[in-house]
Specification:
Order of helices and strands: EHEHHHEEEEHEHEHEEHHEEEHH
Largest sheet: 5 strands, mixed
Number of strands: 13
Strand content: 15-25%
Shape: globular
Number of helices: 11
Helix content: 25-40%
Radius of gyration: 19 Å
Mean pLDDT: 93
């Protein structure tokens, strides 16, 4: 192949991620012509309701997948945390690039951390996972929905609509907005979304030339971690409708996976963790999911 078209959402972060992939491709395949095909998705257009209410994060993918099926694009680039646990046929994840910092960032113009927020403070996030963890740590807070791209969310904070908001560290730092982070929320007290911080390339399987084009971009260490996290989420039937959190980290030659299921209503949470062979991240994810279910996660999942 001498040219490639990448379908991407139009948000600044999505464009950054797609250009990042394009630059990597140009580096490993000198002479390859790569162009972006920016598109608007339903997930970007409907901002007055939560993602869970309008159908989930898969709404960010559908238009891009249709573009590939029509032949308008050869591949698509996504934040992997937005990719459903099961891809429709014929799509595959042809590359998962090295993961950025997976933590969530506490962003506020007035307060230095979650701990020092006054009772009743207004915290913005539409993520059920983040809401459940906030409810567990600070049941006195007022949790408000917050949609839109990163700059839109920051503007709403700056305009006084919130006392603090929670955003992914990776997204802020990729947009040169890392200075807005006043505290990092990280394990073991706080767990990120499965695959948060990782960028993935999706394309139709069966095209060996296309798959080989992306092979040099795939990061085996990141893939093992996110496959464990996504396997856990898949076993729990998780989506943006469910407050599921997970993080896998390398410990020597093995993987250690921490997972949690929470309740937005009352902050109850079930946590579990295990260490397993990096060569079988699927088994590790399933084991931690089983531990969560044994610990009572099923009851919280049924509530959702």
């Amino acid at each position: 192949m001498d040219s490639l078209r990448i379908a991407t959402r139009k948000s600044p972060l999505a464009l950054w991620q797609s250009e990042y992939v394009a630059d990597r491709l140009r580096t490993v395949h000198p002479g390859l012509h790569v162009e972006l095909v920016p598109m608007s998705t339903r997930g970007d257009e409907v901002l007055d309701r939560s993602l869970a209410a309008i159908g989930g994060k898969g709404l960010f993918l559908k238009e891009l997948e249709l573009a590939m099926l029509r032949g308008d694009a050869d591949c698509a680039v996504h934040s992997l945390k937005d990719v459903p646990m099961e891809l429709d046929v014929p799509f595959v994840l042809s590359a998962i690039l090295p993961r950025h910092d997976p933590a969530d960032g506490f962003v506020s113009n007035l307060y230095a951390s979650l701990d020092v927020l006054p009772p009743g403070a207004r915290v913005g996030t539409s993520s059920l996972r983040r809401q459940a963890q906030l409810r567990a740590l600070r049941p006195d807070l007022q949790l408000l929905d917050l949609r839109g791209n990163v700059n839109t969310r920051l503007a709403k904070l700056d305009n006084g609509g919130y006392d603090a908001i929670i955003l992914a560290v990776a997204g802020l730092e990729r947009l040169n907005l890392g200075h807005r982070i006043v505290d990092r929320l990280q394990p073991p007290q706080w767990l990120p979304a499965p695959a948060q911080g990782a960028v993935a390339v999706e394309c139709a399987g069966g095209n060996e030339a296309l798959l080989q084009l992306f092979a040099p971009l795939d990061d085996a260490h990141t893939r093992a971690c996110v496959e464990a996290e996504r396997a856990m989420n898949r076993a729990l039937h998780g989506s943006c409708h469910v407050p599921v959190a997970a993080i896998a980290q390398w410990r020597g030659d093995a993987l250690h996976l921490q997972g949690a299921v929470g309740s937005v209503a009352d902050g109850r949470a079930v946590r579990a963790e295990a260490t397993g062979a990096a060569a079988d991240p699927e088994a590790l994810g399933q084991r931690v999911a089983a531990l969560l279910l044994e610990g009572g996660a099923a009851e919280l999942l049924v509530q959702v």
